[in-house]
Design brief:
The protein has 430 residues and is of the alpha/beta class. The chain contains 19 helices and 14 strands. It has three domains: 194 residues, Rossmann fold, CATH 3.40.50.720; 87 residues, N-(1-d-carboxylethyl)-l-norvaline Dehydrogenase, domain 2 (Orthogonal Bundle); 135 residues, Rossmann fold, CATH 3.40.50. The strands form three sheets. A six-stranded parallel β-sheet has the order 3-2-1-4-5-6, with helices on both faces. It has a six-stranded parallel β-sheet with strand order 11-10-9-12-13-14. The protein is globular. It binds uridine-5'-diphosphate-xylopyranose (UDX). Uridine-5'-diphosphate-xylopyranose binds next to helix 9.
């Protein structure tokens, strides 16, 4: 099938290359010419395991191309995916300006029946908005349909998630267009749900908000565990064996960050408010999450004698989670700002997000290894649960430190092990 994907961010790029890998002819469009040039030179704008190799292979076999020319791409495609950014406004409302811009452009360039698919995470009602926008801006009465087909990929495992999704959700206005999308996804042989556009849009928001709720829930339980002398990791494990609960997304820590959960929960709350419905559950999820870092920093101050001025703190991990270089809504940014505000010096290390970090953080010394970040430090803080931190030589780490103090925001060590190496060790909910 001839497919066009507009937007080469996480979702667009991964979706495009996966469709190409399934044998489709894919044109990826981005208005950012430098990004397109990078992609044409096989330089990936994001770090994602397996992506570069997959793009190279499909480019060599002429199944994928990158361009800024939306007009030609639209003319040559039956299915046009919209995968552009949906940033939040100050109110939490999703800004649909990029979606609108693309919808208008598609409308202006369509020459035959086209299926327009919303892949970006968008509030319920956006499909209708896109339909009206295209209707209004098309040059002739060319037929089209607007479909909602939300993406559930996670950064760091985006390709695997796209090729082996737990479900495909297709929100379609009629059977005919649903069948066309089914055909595109048929090779994956995974469960597919066909529903109306609004329900598909709600499935995406409800899923992300539910996962965020699990995280805020277990973090609240962690707070109680800290007071009661219980171990939240054991509690989560015990809960997770119940298949109605499930073990995923019950890892207590510094709260959810990244480009999706924080913004999607705010957006869903905004939509809920607009409909005049009760937002209590979302208020709690958001407030709990927003207190994770302040609470953690309070703990650090308390354990370090309240005085951080003149202290050096080593930060292990800057990315918002492991296996990505993404630092959007990363807890590291918030923690570092609080430490600097309190007068501490910060030395930081991350396996892959150092380049991104240099553009986002000021006054930070960047180390080349975890050991170097700990060198001369009064304490180290584990912010991201990178695998390479899990088996660090704690003796070596501690040797270089002024004092062996560790705040583990991701519970990657066993308290006993850290203590065996002479660390004053603090973790979450244990
Ligand atoms: C998420 C959804 O999982 C994905 O389905 C959707 O398409 C996009 O948003 P992503 O943001 O890539 O994916 O990361 P995810 O692995 O879901 O983690 C989100 C945040 O929650 C991270 O900050 C992570 O550290 C945190 N988290 C996750 C926890 O604190 N505890 C957990 O148990 C799981």
């Amino acid at each position: 099938m001839n497919v066009c994907v507009v937007g080469t961010g996480y979702v667009g790029l991964v979706t495009g290359v996966c469709f190409a890998d399934l044998g489709n002819e894919v044109i990826c469009v981005d208005k950012d010419a430098s990004k397109v040039e990078m992609l044409n030179n096989n330089i990936m704008p994001i770090y994602e395991p397996g992506l570069e190799e997959m793009v190279r292979r499909n480019r060599e076999e002429n199944r994928i191309s990158f361009t800024t020319d939306l007009a030609t791409a639209v003319k040559n495609s039956l299915v046009v995916f919209i995968a552009v950014g949906t940033p939040p406004k100050d109110t939490g409302e999703t800004d649909l300006c990029y979606i609108e811009e693309v919808a208008k452009e598609i409308a202006g360039h369509m020459e035959k029946y086209t299926i327009i698919v919303n892949k970006s995470t968008v509030p319920v009602g956006t499909g209708d908005f896109v339909r009206k926008t295209v209707e209004h801006h098309r040059r002739r009465t060319i037929d089209f349909d607007v479909v909602s087909n939300p993406e559930f990929l996670k950064e760091g495992s985006a390709i695997a998630d796209s090729l082996n999704p737990e479900r495909i959700v297709i929100g379609a206005p009629n059977n005919h267009v649903a069948m066309a999308l089914l055909e595109l996804y048929a090779p994956l042989e995974v469960p597919m749900l066909i529903t109306d556009v609004e329900s598909a849009e709600m499935i995406k928001y409800a899923s992300n908000a539910f996962l965020a709720t699990k995280i805020s829930f277990i973090n609240t339980i962690a707070n109680i565990c800290e007071r009661a002398g219980a171990d939240v990791t054991a509690v989560a494990k015990g809960m997770g064996y119940d298949s109605r609960i499930g073990k995923e997304f019950l890892q207590a820590g510094l709260g959810f960050g990244g480009s999706c959960f924080p913004k999607d929960t705010l957006s869903l709350r905004h939509v809920t408010r607009e409909f005049g419905e009760d937002t209590a559950i979302f208020d709690a999820v958001i407030a709990t999450n927003e207190d994770r870092v302040p609470r953690f920093v309070r703990r650090i101050r308390q354990e370090m004698g309240d005085e951080l001025k003149g202290k050096t703190i080593g930060i292990l991990g800057l990315a918002f989670k492991a296996n990505t270089d993404d630092m959007r809504e990363a807890k590291s940014v918030e923690i570092i700002a609080a430490l600097q505000e309190a007068g501490a010096s910060v030395k930081a290390y991350d396996p892959v997000s150092m380049d991104v970090a240099r553009t986002m953080l000021t006054g930070v010394t960047f180390a080349r290894t975890a050991y170097e970040a700990a060198e001369g430090a009064d304490a180290v803080i584990v912010v991201t649960d990178w695998n390479e931190f899990k088996l660090l030589n704690l003796e070596k780490l501690g040797e270089g430190m002024k004092e062996r103090v560790m705040f583990d925001g991701r519970n990657i060590y066993h308290p006993e092990k850290a203590r065996k190496f002479g660390f004053r060790y603090y973790s979450i909910g244990r």
